[in-house]
Specification:
This protein is α/β, with parallel strands linked by helices. It contains 25 helices and 21 strands.
């Protein structure tokens, strides 16, 4: 039932036609006015009996009451003096008042209509002239909480044209406003970190640029990229990586209270805007402090992670004249810091810009080199110290540029790793080395192991085992004549994943080696878990043999440790007789280096195999 009676005791809402008119659904009253009538209630059909009429009206009252109470928006029926005659449950619910606390009271007596009362001088004349008013108010719940409200008022007039009732339709806009606020927030802020997003950062940059031009101020932009974050994401999963990004964002915020805007641009890229700065020295101090803060270990779900970052700093107007150039220069400086090993910052300079352009050109040329087969494979022999004969060779890629000539590996391998081109290059070397090793055997030459360097990029792709299996099948090379090398530092990037991959490769019969051993921080427990066959001593220790007692001691220890674990030992970078003699005395298994042979092409290595040369 509709709650409330009129002053005369007549039930409000008798007749469905009246109630539908009140709701403004049927448009009945409008049609009546068009016919020159203003009555609100439909006339009784002549043919119906009193009993039938009573049944019809009772049914209409029940239906009207159901609609009234089931409505999702608040409905309040008022008399001409703005006394509440009926209130539905929806209005009671979001106003916080029980129906009994509202019915019979004037609007002016209730706190839930304070804003409506403030606007009453505007509402009243419009309502009297147009029979309707609507607008947004900020009203008060019983708890005192303010909430946005959409109010629609409609006038009902009697036969004489006087106001008999006022019907209020009330909507609580709180949920809509929260949704709109969230949309606005997501438009300008990163959901994961709460930092400004790229769009807001761009707006802040433009605003800062305008202020700088008007007030002769200087801007500084720090472009930040986390080092090797993709590896972390691939090895530990996106959920943990998201936690890292969240914690990094908090560290940025705490470490840079003087920053005007800190933003997450995308993925693991952040930017910091300084609307003004004191000096280059002050910026350098800020960058140094930030790197130290970011470099502190993070504990996330039992994992202790050390995050480093590469930063690029550009200045306006010192190095850039507009915002687009400022952003581009900071990115170039960041890439230079990353190229130098990461965990550092670089200021942009025009010489750096020239270097960046050269690298971009080199990248394009390298892509072309892969497509046009400008790459070749050279081989550096490995000698067995027990026999003095060659028993293996390391496959090394070379780039024969049509204009530049031979491009040193140091000039393009790092670039290939940064750009992902190391993947196709590594596959090319693997296929060519296996094909060539099998070809030598078909020519009747003594079989030797060919070793191929792996990259972390190849391991991340998760296709290495299937690729090796395919290449062995296609080339016809027996797996024991293929050796795959991975540097010690790369082994520790994703231990569990690499252990699994190495176990699968070991099951294929492929030989495995740890390259540059002694330069990383691997423990003996890790070394035992990797299914490796060879340990290659880094040439930095071999270079010190005969000159540095510490290098000799380390070399001895590595050989003894490897042999105790039943691993073979290869010494690389052997260039002097004293080094060779020392390694032979320590019972090192194999050596390679310029003393034995420089890297040579496949034809030259075939000639060495045919001559069955003894190096010792």
């Amino acid at each position: 039932m509709i709650q409330g009676l009129s002053a005369s005791g007549v039930l409000i809402g008798t007749g469905l036609g009246f109630f539908l008119t009140v709701l403004g659904v049927a448009g009945w009253q409008v049609n009546q006015r068009r016919r020159g009538k203003s009555q609100s209630l439909p006339t009784r059909p002549e043919a119906q009996s009193p009993a039938a009429e009573r049944l019809r009206e009772a049914e209409q009252r029940r239906l009207a009451a159901t609609v009234f109470e089931a409505a999702s928006e608040g409905i309040v029926i008022l008399d001409p003096d703005y006394r509440m005659l009926a209130v539905n449950q929806a209005f009671s619910r979001f106003s916080g008042y029980a129906v009994e606390e509202l019915v019979g009271h004037r609007v002016s007596e209730l706190a839930c209509s304070r804003d409506a009362l403030r606007h009453f001088p505007v509402i009243q004349p419009v309502l009297e002239q147009q029979d309707r008013w609507q607008g947004e108010l900020v009203e008060t719940r019983k708890t005192g909480e303010l909430y946005p409200q959409w109010l629609q008022l409609k006038v009902v007039r009697d036969d004489d044209g006087h106001i008999s009732h006022i019907v209020a339709f009330v909507s609580d806009l709180s949920a809509r406003r929260r949704s709109e606020a969230r949309v606005r927030h997501l438009t300008h802020f990163d959901e994961l970190t709460g930092l400004a997003n790229r769009l807001l950062f761009k707006e802040r940059l433009e605003e800062a640029n305008q202020r700088a031009r008007q007030g002769a101020r200087n801007l500084a932009l720090l472009y930040i990229n986390l080092d090797r974050f993709k590896l972390l994401n691939d090895s530990l999963g996106s959920e943990l990586a998201d936690q890292v990004l969240h914690k990094v964002a908090r560290r940025l915020t705490k470490a840079l209270p003087e920053a005007d805007t800190i933003a997450r641009l995308s993925g693991d890229e952040f930017a910091v805007l300084f609307d003004s700065y004191a000096s280059l020295t002050s910026l350098a101090r800020v960058a140094t402090r930030l790197l130290a803060k970011l470099g502190r270990p993070l504990m996330i779900e039992g994992h202790e992670l050390v995050i480093s970052a590469s930063m690029g700093i550009s200045l306006l107007p010192d190095s850039a004249r507009d915002i687009a150039t400022l952003v581009s220069q900071s990115n170039q400086a960041m890439l230079q810091a990353k190229h130098l090993g990461g965990g550092s910052f670089q200021f942009f300079s025009h010489s750096l810009q020239h270097s960046t352009l050269e690298r971009l050109q080199l990248e394009n040329q390298l892509r072309k080199a892969i497509a046009e087969q400008q790459l070749t494979v050279f081989y550096q022999p490995k000698m067995c110290l027990a026999t003095g004969r060659m028993n293996g060779a390391e496959a090394l890629v070379r780039w024969d540029h049509p204009q530049l000539g031979s491009v040193p590996p140091g000039d393009f391998i790092g670039l290939a790793e940064e750009t992902g081109l190391i993947g196709p290059i590594g596959e090319f070397v693997l296929r060519e080395a296996c094909r060539q090793a099998c070809q030598w055997q078909r020519e009747g030459l003594a079989p030797i192991r060919v070793s191929v360097n792996l990259s972390v990029h190849q391991l991340r792709q998760g296709k290495l085992v299937s690729l090796v299996r395919q290449v062995l099948e296609e080339s016809g090379l027996a797996p024991q004549y293929l050796e795959l090398e991975l540097t010690e530092s790369q082994l520790l990037d994703s231990v569990e994943s690499i252990i699994s991959t190495f176990e699968q490769l070991h099951q294929l019969g492929v030989k495995l080696a740890i390259d540059d051993f002694g330069t990383g921080y691997s423990s003996l427990s890790y070394l035992k878990r990797f299914a490796v066959d060879y340990v290659k001593i880094d040439q930095t220790f071999i270079r010190g043999v005969g000159r540095c007692a510490e290098d000799e001691a380390i070399t001895k220890a590595i050989i003894a440790m490897a042999h105790s674990l039943e691993l073979m030992v290869v010494a690389e970078g052997v260039e002097e007789d004293v080094q060779l003699a020392f390694l032979k005395a320590q019972q090192c298994d194999e050596v390679q280096g310029y003393l034995i042979s420089r890297p040579i092409n496949a034809a030259a290595l075939g000639d060495l195999l045919r001559s069955d040369v003894v190096f010792l």
